């Protein structure tokens, strides 16, 4: 992913108002991000732990999505779960169900789409082995790196397509 600045990030959000996008707490140290190792920029809001954000390059430009942890969802902290994007297994709370309001009229009507994502949104780093899950060593991924990256990109595109999908 190419480095992006604050203005590009704020302008990319498709499922919130411009005012909401202006109030988003951006990740600290944008200049120090490992951009070469990122397929998307994802972060949790330190001031609101139920909020997360994801910004990804797509054809036509950046697409930013606000995400929330749905209220009332109970999680087992003894279970192993797998991220739907990068297919990294995590123990306990290492994967979170994150819901995105759909873009446009569907989102204004309250329609959402959710998926299980690494709780720290560091999928790109897990795929590349730059960050290790606590389950590292428990299983060995057999796909070559390029195929793992392509699989993650396809999974991310499918999720973003659902967020952007027009509802009848």
Could you describe the 3D structure shown?
There is one protein chain. It contains five helices and seven strands; from the N terminus they run H-H-E-E-E-E-E-E-H-E-H-H. It is of the alpha+beta class and 168 residues long. The chain has one domain (6-164). Strand 1 and strand 2 form a beta hairpin. The longest helix has 20 residues, at 145-164. The model has no long low-confidence stretch (mean pLDDT 90).
> How far from one another are the termini?
33 Å
User: What is the element string, with H for helices and E for strands?
Assistant: HHEEEEEEHEHH
Total domain count? 1
Portion of residues in helices?
25-40%
Uncertain parts = none
Oligomeric category: single chain
Number of DSSP helical runs: 5
Mean pLDDT: 90
- Major sheet strand order: 1-2-3-6-7
Estimate the global geometry from the Cα principal axes.
globular
Radius of gyration: 16 Å
Instruction: Describe the sheet with the most strands.
Output: 5 strands, antiparallel
Percentage beta strand: 15-25%
Structural class: alpha+beta
Q: In total, how many beta strands? A: 7
């Amino acid at each position: 992913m190419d480095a992006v600045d604050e203005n590009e990030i704020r302008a990319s959000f498709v499922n919130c108002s411009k005012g909401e996008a202006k109030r988003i707490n951006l990740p600290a140290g944008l200049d120090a991000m490992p951009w070469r190792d990122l397929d998307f920029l994802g972060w949790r809001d330190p001031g609101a732990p139920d909020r997360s954000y994801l910004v990804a390059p797509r054809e036509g430009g950046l697409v930013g999505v606000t995400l929330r942890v749905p209220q009332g969802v109970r999680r087992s902290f003894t279970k192993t779960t797998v991220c739907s994007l990068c297919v990294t297994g995590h123990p306990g709370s290492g994967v979170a169900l994150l819901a995105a309001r759909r873009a446009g009229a569907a989102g204004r009507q309250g329609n959402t789409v959710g998926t299980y994502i690494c709780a720290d949104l560091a999928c790109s780093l897990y795929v590349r082995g730059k960050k290790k899950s606590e389950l590292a060593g428990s299983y060995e991924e057999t796909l070559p790196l390029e195929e793992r990256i392509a699989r993650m990109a396809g999974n991310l595109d499918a999720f973003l397509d659902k967020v952007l999908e027009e509802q009848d």
